[in-house]
Amino acid sequence: MSKKNDGGILWADRKHHLWFPISFTKYSFDSERLYLSSGVFSSRDDECLLYRILDISLSRSFGQKFFGTGTIELNTRDRSTPIIRLENISNPKEVRKRLSEQIESERRRNHVVGKDMYGSSAGYGPVDLDPDLVDPDGPDQGIF
What we know:
Layout: E1 11-14, E2 26-29, E3 33-39, E4 43-49, E5 53-59, H1 62-67, E6 69-76, E7 83-90, H2 92-109, H3 114-118
Antiparallel strand pairs: 1-2, 2-3, 3-4, 5-6, 6-7
């Protein structure tokens, strides 16, 4: 696990093979977003707002425990990446803790509460957290 002070990155790592970070898959997060980058000849970059992360789970096989790595799986409300896997990262327990703390901090900063993430009992269903798509007069009035 590394910390960068340039540009506000709070954590960055690469996907490890055994205990060696010799991969072209990079993970990082700052105070607002989680970033994923992969590929050599063709690449893909994804990002997810931290407050959109619903659940964090950590799994570690025997081999991952032996080499000090683990996989964090994140369930999100992001349409392009509903499940994000941070595979074979070092110090996964510490990363999970720091990520969880940052997610809660972002939810407080953005005034996001449970009903915004899962939907309320007023008939809206799951809310997409886009205020332009939610009609404040209720579900019977339509959207837009």
